[in-house]
Amino acid sequence: MGVTEVRLGADHLAGCVALSAAAGWNQNAADWRLMLELGEGWGLELRDGTLAASTLVIPYGSFAWISMVLVLPGHRRKGYATRLLRIALAALARANLTPVLDATPAGREVYRQEGFRDAWGFKRFVVQRKALLPAQSSVRGLRASDWPWILELDRAAFGGTREALLRSLAGRLPDRALVVEREGFILAREGREATQIGPLVARNAEAARMLLETVLARSGGPMYLDLTDHAALAPAGLAEQRPFTRMVHGTAAAPGDTSKVFLVAGPELG
């Protein structure tokens, strides 16, 4: 069956969410809408209009995130993912942006063959129910006056500018948009399967621990925590779902200061 290349837009949202569901991924319509607003995407449509594959890129200053490389199960091993990935890489080359992504174990070797190399790793943990944790007096809700230092800290940690993303995430679950004064912040959003906790960016592990414990205490399960490998923050008893590898295309250094990143926003967002 032939396929047609399309630029993804709002009229493809239902097909995009169907791709996430078919892969068992957590993105809902709000996530897809946000990613398409922040960046651009390509897809492959079957003759009946079914969206069979997707790829997105989200620019963050000097680099861009490649995400949502998805193919419907019945159409895998036909080269669709590689075809769309190469379209994305060509677009980023024209824009002089370094491609970065977070790879699942299944996708890592494919990306290596396309010129990506490992930078660092993180693991997804699953919380199935509300944690009984003490309140942290140093943690408070995010205020409008916090944005200047939050954005400065995030630029240093993440390595790029993602103000529009952070402001959007802060509005999704505002009761879980929390800070420790000038030391760190945490955000969360609802997903198709679970609440995604993150990003969590902090100057030190103690601030990160207080933020994570507070947001867990305010949330019900299931929840996903994408914890960087250097962050010794996982509460006891969490189930590890899968590892991820942050990869950078070519010889460029990985952006940002990993020591300040404790939870990523999700592999689709960075």
Strands, helices and their partners?
Layout: E1 3-7, H1 13-23, H2 29-38, E2 40-46, E3 51-60, E4 63-71, H3 80-95, E5 98-103, H4 105-113, E6 116-127, E7 139-141, H5 147-158, H6 163-172, E8 178-180, E9 184-189, E10 195-202, H7 205-217, E11 223-228, E12 239-249, E13 261-263
Parallel strand pairs: 4-5, 10-11
Antiparallel strand pairs: 1-2, 2-3, 3-4, 5-12, 6-11, 6-12, 7-8, 8-9, 9-10, 10-13
* Tally of DSSP β-strands: 13
Question: What is the chain-wise order of helices and strands?
Answer: EHHEEEHEHEEHHEEEHEEE
Largest beta-sheet details? 13 strands, mixed
The pLDDT mean sits at: 94
| Shape assignment | globular
DSSP helix fraction:
25-40%
Can you offer a commentary on this structure?
It is a single chain. By secondary structure, the protein is α+β, with helices and mostly antiparallel strands. It folds into two domains: 3-96, 3-Layer(aba) Sandwich (Aminopeptidase), CATH 3.40.630.30; 124-263, Gcn5-related N-acetyltransferase (GNAT) (Aminopeptidase, 3-Layer(aba) Sandwich), CATH 3.40.630.30. Helices cover 30% and strands 33% of the residues. Strands 1, 2, 3, 4, 5, 6, 7, 8, 9, 10, 11, 12 and 13 form a 13-stranded mixed beta sheet that branches. Strand 8 and strand 9 (184-189) form a beta hairpin. The longest helix is centred in the N-terminal third of the chain and has 16 residues, at 80-95. The protein starts with a strand and ends in a 7-residue tail after the last strand.
